[in-house]
Amino acid sequence: MKEYSYFPGCSQLSSAEEYGISAQEVSEALGFRLKALPDWNCCGASSAHMTNHLLSLALPGRNLVLARQEGRDLVVICAACYHNLKSAQMELLSDEAAAHRVEEIVGSDPRFEGRIVTLLDVLAEELGLDDMEGRVKSKLEGLRPVSYYGCLMARPRGIMEDDDPDNPAFMDRLLSVLGAEVKNWSYKTDCCGGSLSLTRPDIVASLVNRLFEAAEEAGANCMVTACPMCLANLEMRQSEKRLRYSLKHDMPVFFFTELMGLALGLEDVEDWFGRHLIDPRPLLAQAGLTR
Amino acid sequence: MAQRKEGAREKATAGKAGGAIGAVMVVGGGVGGIQASLELANLGYKVYLIDSSPSLGGVMGMLDKTFPTNECSMCILSPKMVEVASNQNIEVITLADVISVEGQAGNFTVRLRIRPRYVDTEKCTGCGDCTAKCPSKVPDPYNAGLSKTRCIRVPFPQAVPGAAVIDPEACLWLTKEKCGNCLKVCQADAIDFDQKEREETLRVGAVIAAPGYKPFDASRKTEYGYGVLGNVLTSLEFERILGANGPTQGRVVRPTDGEEVEKLAFIQCVGSRDTTVGNGYCSSVCCMYATKQALIAIEHLPYIQPTIFFIDMRAYGKDFERYYNQASSRHGVRYVRGLISGIRERQRTKNPLLRYLDEEGCMHEEEFDLVVLSIGLEAPTGLAEGLELEANDYGFAQADSFLPVLSSRDGIFVCGAAGEPKDIPDTVTQATAAAGLASQQLHRARGSMLTHMEYPSERDVSGEEPRVGAVICRCGSNIGGFVDVPAVVDYARELPGVVFAEERLYACSQDAQEWIRQVVEEHGLNRLVVASCTPRTHQPLFRETLQSAGINKYLFEMANIREHCSWVHMREPELATRKAKYLVKMAVEKARRLEPLEEGESGVIPRALVIGGGVTGMNAALGLAGSGFQVYLVEKEDELGGLARNIHFSHDGEDVQDYLVGLVDRVEFEELITVFTSHRVRDVGGFVGQFKTLIADDEGHEAMLEHGAVIVATGGLQYQPTEYLFGEDPRVITQWDLERRLAEEDASLRDLERVVMIQCVGSREEERPYCSKVCCAEAVKNALALKEQAPDTEVYVLYRDVRTYGFREDLYREARERGVAFLRFEEELRPDVRGLWGDLQVRVPDANLGGETVVFNTDLVVLSTGILANPDNAELAPMLKVPRNADGFFLEAHMKLRPVDFATDGVFVCGLAHAPKSIEESVAQAAAAAARAESILSRGKIVTEGVVAVVDPERCSGCRVCVDLCPFKAVDFDEENRVAVVNSSLCKGCGTCTAACTTGASRLQGFRSDQIFEQIEAAASAWWD
Known about the structure:
Structural class of chain B: alpha/beta
Oligomer: heterodimer
Mean pLDDT of chain B: 93
Shape of chain B: globular
Largest sheet of chain B: 5 strands, parallel
Number of helices of chain B: 24
Number of strands of chain A: 7
Strand order of the largest sheet of chain B: 7-4-3-15-26
Low-confidence stretches of chain A: none
Largest sheet of chain A: 4 strands, parallel
């Protein structure tokens, strides 16, 4: 079985545990394995780069040292981690002085020359969508998702592997293959408020509700994302009653890996869905997708 | 257009004279290439005009209207294309690309790759029968892919060559060996699937590169969702939507649902002024074309509300500012300063949603029905590979600083957008200039490769009874499919005067011309009528055929039974047949009354007069001298140089004074140029080819100059400010003053703490509502130079719009990077400069800060003063019989296509006399004016059309209505005999005077009253037949 190095990221141990589990299980079901980097550390999340530039290189730098030692391409499932690792890699590979500085701090050469990819990239390359179609056990009929990439997977411009940074399309195609009726909208890469969730919930609430309004207008009944921070914001802030958005959208939000698990007929999908703040099970039941 | 026969060309060496080859290759068949080709043919050179597409026309051929006159683009371009098509010395080679250009100036060998058309252009008549039967649909490139056409088609109705072309990738025969419908239906046997890609080698003395530009690929700006969002179009697509001949017949509707557009947005600078896509330059034309498109959209649907989102409104050209002002104040075009960072889409309506920041800093989200992306101009391909020209960082052809038509290779000239983004008139100017410069190198070989038609001497038909021959054309099934052609032939045969009538499948084909010649001889015909298509394209052909049969070519009349009959009456074949009959009858009645007309000739004095000895005038004079003509250069001041004496360095760092000294030297050493300093023009008499101009010096010493052409290069003046304490406080100076001190490296500049520059002093205001074009670049240039000499000096530029068009944008960006601060003010809230206890204080409401007033104490205020028209123009204009515009600048014959001509033949204009412009633009215009003058001087004689007006002195009452009306100043008043006299050398046969003549004394040859009345009679009587 082909193996990739895997950077889980902190949220997979906490708020987005279902993302990490579903990602691993879906990968194995599709014939490749995600091997977590031994002794990985936080990538710097949304605070390191605002604190100290060197810190924002050194934290991912240490993980890159590990990836270098493992010698495999590195899969990152969290959009924020992906963004941090990829940005650090680009800088360390192009700026020798920065690489030396980080080497002094972390004790080993951080110049990882392998590829850093998202799970979506791997799916596109390893599998291709035609092959995926044959593996679908239960088609996701009745789900009308809009795909939501969030802002970090695609930016800064140029780090995205193949897709259009403003109108990425691979997740849409993937969900279509799984049998969902994917809705078109133009907010795929709009910001959800990111790390302002705790410091400025008002901003996050207005951004998130704007997204849900657009998703509802597009005729969607759920949103699908590839970013744990987006999911947290979308679920937590879509019904901020104390703010001007009294409207409760109650629209479930999935990780794309969860829906893949569902379509592929994996065992413990029910457990994942139980972890959501907005319970998606009524929608799934309505669509006849629960067992 | 000479038709190509493979292997039948004479060897090019025959055209060599003095080592140079008297032929030029023009690469690119857009308006620039077309203009250059026509000029070169006029100047006596054989031209190979190549284009990589199947037709001439370029982008201009796709445009609906042109700014700032809103004229129909195709209507003004198409006559030029027809002129190319009918010119024997221009050989059009389509579907061709340059592989290589070897050799040197005067003697180049050009290798071409020519792709197969699969249609024989000599045989194809453009009838369209094949298109009607072609099953393969393809997106129509002429409509920017917004509609479908067929795989085989004439690219567009006015295409030149007007022959069909097959798209090999979509053709079922070529891809699958199926179908072959076109082979079956083509009655002209023109389809040729055996054509292969081939190479051809041609020898020429010079090459003119006019490949135009590449439209920016809007999908690269992914944030605008082009190609993803249904109601986001590029400006080129929108131009087609506006076009009456476009995919929606000019209905302004949106692609997703075909609904009429109400709220329309334009986003400027898409792919321009944008280093993220590698295009740091300004595309120069988008502000005006967006304004034009907004106006035309309103014209189509009065309730459309257009909004233009922009950074700076760059209305810098002649009459652009007025156009912009009227668009916003009179026609309701909304201009919002601020760019759009992304487009979202409402899913139910597919309405694009735009978010923007207004000038007060408030965020808005606004819904539109349609968004148009004003895409920029990118460098064309092929400059580096085939032509091996050096390119600048943006890929445009690297050009000479003072004369951008000169490329990096001697003998290869560049014109149009390939050198820098530019509009149509600047392209036409450069094309003409390029032709003139090529001629300077090749003038010894002038005429050596021209084809001259030898015609038999004309048979005298006077006294003969009219013997009319009528040829009725079927035009494949175009006419024959709807009109009963045999019935029309039978009808024609019975008409009085007709001795011969027959039909032809295609009357315009080569073999039909030979047949007509034989028929004329066999039947002793002395009048010819052809009933076919439009005289616009085909009259010259038939006239020539008649001439080659020894009959005066004016004894020809045409009936248009296609455009005026079969095409518009397809559903009523019987009535169409009846109409075709009376159209033929009308033509026959006119033909019976035709008389042979003579073409006049008048001599040309091969010398030119250039008025004005500035950079422009000197360049014009040197251009003509370079082609071997004598020039009188008249300058009112006691030395040459003009305004350029105040300019020290150009925006790209060249030393202008060095250049000026060199220029004066060249003029003074040039034997062919006679300089008259301290002289003014006192009187101008005569006309094209034979002017007599009286000049006098300050002491009244007079001289009479005889010359064939006049170039007006009278220049302009600098505005002398009365505002902003100028003249009262020595710390308030002009840019010229600053520039002089910078050139002298004045040490006191280094002590300045702060310098404030004020733009638009004397420009863009009620009294002078035009932009002086050069001041923004001048201010930015001087600000940078000041920063270079005094890095610690703070520089503030107070502006209204920064109009650093083209590559000047790089300077603007550099200035900002170097810390020059730009503060915007509104016209009605101008800066205030005052002296305050010895301090010089500037207060300005900063429009970018919501009108917050910013106050500076400054050491120096530099005023960017505008350019004024030379007051002498007022005196000169009536002498030369040429008009001026409202701002006092001379008004050219046509804003778009005749930028250096006047309606009065033989008089040309260039430089600041025409409008404010930069040195390099003035020099290009000078070269263009010289080329236009050369086209007269090199001719030896002027041949005039046979269709001219004549005045019967017996009947003329001397009222002079015609004198005032004639747009070409061809009618003079004979004071002695008190009658009007037409100068046939100037008359264009427009008929204005004839129509206005109260006594019937004025008569237009070939359009006599009795001829017209008989035609009307014929039209009316045909209904009773």
